[in-house]
Amino acid sequence: MFRRLSTVLISLTLTFTSIFAVPFKVAIANLGSHKSLIDVVNGIESKAKELGLDVIFDVQHVNFDMTQIPKMLTAFKAKKPDILITLTTSVTQHAKTIFRGTSVPIVFAAITDPVEAKLLTFPNTPTDTMTGVSDRQDAASIIAFIKHHLPCVKRIGIPFAQNEANDRALLESFKTAAKDIDIVPIPVDNLQDLPHRIRAAASSVDALYVGPSNMIQPALPVIIQQANRANVPVFNFNEAAVTSHQALGSFSVSYMHLGHAVAKILKELMDEKSISSIAPLYPNTDDHYGTVSSTVAKRLKISLPSKPYPNVTYVGQ
User: Fold this and answer.
1) Measured between alpha carbons, how far is 98 from 67 in angstroms, rounded to an integer?
2) CB proximity list for 82: less than 8 A, separation 6 or greater
């Protein structure tokens, strides 16, 4: 009888341990401390708290040093997290390789085209180990936003890193969406070439658009400097350069909202939903918001239209 009771107690103990094996250990592997990526992390953490999730987040980044990504992910793998969240294409591509053969589900974020990046086979279908949230910009909406504030725009230059899947996907989406606008690709192989490439292109474009490029975003001040010399307005995907009155405008998905969406996927996984049944998420037009600097417009002698653009904040004077 005592043996039977002991067996029952052990069984109950194991059951309670499996049910209450919390908090969940969630690793967040980030490329660097860029504002948009910080917004994703903050969005994940704030939404997780709002949802009442019992998690411990371990957040690391490599300060945009690509060579350190494998080291960061290998260290995470040794810690055996319950879930891995990866920010940016390069981090996720490495994670796919390093975590291969493990049962750790991977949730990506801040990736423009997961199919182009060879992370998913089909846009709306997860794999057995991976799903996530794309930051795919709605190119048609961005072009409409630019045209509203620059009605005479005919040529938009887009600097892009040729070896980045995100950058190539963004460029192609703009080419597809452009109707009566010429999209001028500005290929960049390394940052040393960037000032020359921007200077050469500035004389033949009416505006520049800088997307969420891991390589090019850190060099945004250089792009703005060269554009200012040619009196060419810069539109950035992120509003930070607009609110500081460097770029003219921004129109982008909310990276904080992307973080919220990741947290919701996190909850589904914690509720024991299979990752292979959680479809990847993509932003729509309503997920975009904008900012325009009246100060930059005045400096560039641009007359802003009297009618404000929907979901856009105007700053400065």
Assistant:
1) 14
2) 24, 25, 26, 104
Write the single-letter amino acid at 103. Answer: S
Quick: pLDDT tens for 129-149.
999 999 988 899 999 999 999
Token pair belonging to 73: 């992910």
Total residues belonging to the chain = 317
Is residue 256 a contact partner of residue 42, using CB atoms and an 8 Å limit?
Answer: yes
Digit-coded pLDDT (tens) for 227-285? 999 999 999 988 989 999 999 999 988 889 999 999 999 999 999 999 999 999 998 77
In order of start, what are the domains of the chain with their CATH numbers?
2-135+255-284 (3.40.50.2300), 139-252+288-315 (3.40.50.2300)
Neighbours of 2 (CB within 10 A): 6
Instruction: Give the residue carrying structure tokens 């010399």.
Output: 229
Q: pTM for the complete prediction?
A: 0.74
Buried b (16+ CB within 10 A) or exposed e, 255-294: bbbbbbbbbbbbbebbeeeebeebebbbbeeebbbbbbbe
Q: Which of 289, 269, 286 is nearest to 277 (CA)?
A: 269
- Reduced to 3 states (helix: H, G, I; strand: E, B; else coil), residue 51 is coil
Q: Which residue has the tokens 């005919």?
A: 154
How is residue 144 written in tokens? 């409409």
* Of 45, 54, 15, 40, the residue nearest 270 (C-alpha): 54
Query: What are the backbone angles phi and psi of residue 291, rounded to the nearest 5°?
Result: -140, 140
Contact 147, 181 (CB under 8 A): yes
Q: Is the dihedral of CA 260, 261, 265, 267 positive or negative?
A: positive
Eight-class DSSP state of 203: T
- Cα–Cα distance between 239 and 111 in angstroms, integer? 19
- C-alpha span between 22 and 89 (Å, rounded): 30
How far is 92 from 117, CA to CA, in rounded Å? 9
Mention every residue, 6+ apart, whose C-beta is less than 8 A from residue 316. Answer: 245, 293, 294, 295, 296, 298
What is the Cα–Cα distance from 214 to 220, expressed in whole angstroms? 11
